[in-house]
């Protein structure tokens, strides 16, 4: 066998390597058992978020051969698409990333013969299937002052994330006395009453489509009301925002 390189907690192709261990240490030695080198160096996303849905991984390296390239993940072969000499996309089945922890993705060039044997090479890449550290925030706003007896006054609520979140996410609006909720609506949100939900992930620094909260203002509404909205779920601590509103 030929050492093609180190992955995990070691890098490079030097063999042997000397290191001092102070904590958990997981090097992966990648070997080729035919002289044709195949090596997997990176996987994207490097730390996929735990999910029960089907997903995909993009692996980059060297020596990939379209037509004889295979990927093995979660104890079974997986479909590979877009195979070039340096990159391939691995289609993961629903459930492949359902458990947090470490997974191994094996890639190989395998030329089959009858009965199913032939030259092959493989390399292993450490794939981590762990949750990120989502931190959801929410902003509530409106434009101008409301007036007593006004119909169709609107607020806007926007959820943003400081890291990757996983659904479901719920936005709940607490309507103050003097206002009556007419509707809540936003692209991709399901809003049956004073709460909206969705289950898709939210990337780092991204925002979900805004939610429009429509209210009617009572003829006897006080001069100032405060509308409060809360976002929860997504494996994040709940966050709230308050929006004081002047009523003329």
- What's the total count of β strands? 18
Fourth-tier CATH superfamily name of the largest domain: Immunoglobulins
- Strand arrangement within the widest β-sheet reads 3-4-8-7
| CATH 2nd-level architecture of the largest domain | Sandwich
Shape: elongated
Radius of gyration: 26 Å
Broad structural category: mainly beta
Average the pLDDT over all residues and give the rounded result: 83
Which labels suit this protein?
single chain, 248 residues, mainly beta, Immunoglobulin-like, 2 domains, four-stranded antiparallel β-sheet
Describe the secondary structure blueprint for this structure.
Elements: E1 2-8, E2 27-32, E3 39-44, E4 55-62, E5 69-73, E6 76-78, E7 80-81, E8 87-92, E9 101-110, E10 120-129, E11 136-141, E12 153-161, E13 169-174, E14 179-185, E15 195-198, E16 211-217, E17 224-233, E18 236-246
Antiparallel strand pairs: 1-2, 3-4, 4-8, 5-6, 5-9, 7-8, 9-10, 11-12, 12-16, 13-15, 13-17, 14-16, 17-18
Write structural notes for this entry.
By secondary structure, this protein is mostly beta strands. It folds into two domains: 2-129, Immunoglobulins (Immunoglobulin-like, Sandwich); 136-246, Immunoglobulin-like (Sandwich). Helices cover 0% and strands 50% of the residues. It has no helices and 18 strands. The protein has strands at residues 2-8, 27-32, 39-44, 55-62, 69-73, 76-78, 80-81, 87-92, 101-110, 120-129, 136-141, 153-161, 169-174, 179-185, 195-198, 211-217, 224-233, 236-246. The strands form five sheets. It has a four-stranded antiparallel β-sheet, with no helix packed on it. It has a four-stranded antiparallel β-sheet with strand order 6-5-9-10, with no helix packed on it. The protein has a four-stranded antiparallel β-sheet with strand order 11-12-16-14, with no helix packed on it. A hairpin with a 5-residue loop joins strand 7 and strand 8. It is elongated and about 80 Å long. The model is unreliable at 114-119 (pLDDT under 50).
